Amino acid sequence: MTERKSVIRNIAEEPWQQYPGHFGSALSKALVAPETTGSQLMDYRISTYQPMAYVERHVHEVQEQVYHILDGEGLMEIGDETRVVRKNDVIFIAPGTWHSIQNSGLGDLTFIVVTTPVTDG
């Protein structure tokens, strides 16, 4: 585990990654995470999904999430509802809620995801 310390990070320092369950150029940078800063209570990522990219439908047992759409548009599935999401929309996902996001727009879909606590355990 990385030592816990206060840091300032530049977004260019973190490589883009495609995590398991993410498809079609659904890329993320783990800016604050156990492996990058030693954080234990939150995971903070910026993600960019190219058109047609998505994360598969999934659920977190204990984690809460916030998605903040920075640019583009797509479809957010939350529970039994699917909604268009656009720039400046903020989505709160409670534990136990099945969800997915996909880029159904014409350009890149860029958003922040904050997850707490870090693990679902």
TrEMBL record:
InterPro entries: Cupin_2, GPI/OXD, RmlC-like_jellyroll, RmlC_Cupin_sf
Pfam families xrefs: Cupin_2
Domain Cupin type-2: start-end pairs: 47-114
Record GO terms (molecular function): metal ion binding
Coiled coil: none
Keywords: Metal-binding
TM region positions: none
Domain of life: Bacteria
Stored PANTHER family: CUPIN TYPE-2 DOMAIN-CONTAINING PROTEIN (PTHR35848:SF6), OXALATE-BINDING PROTEIN (PTHR35848)
Record's protein name: Cupin type-2 domain-containing protein
Source organism of this protein record: Actibacterium pelagium
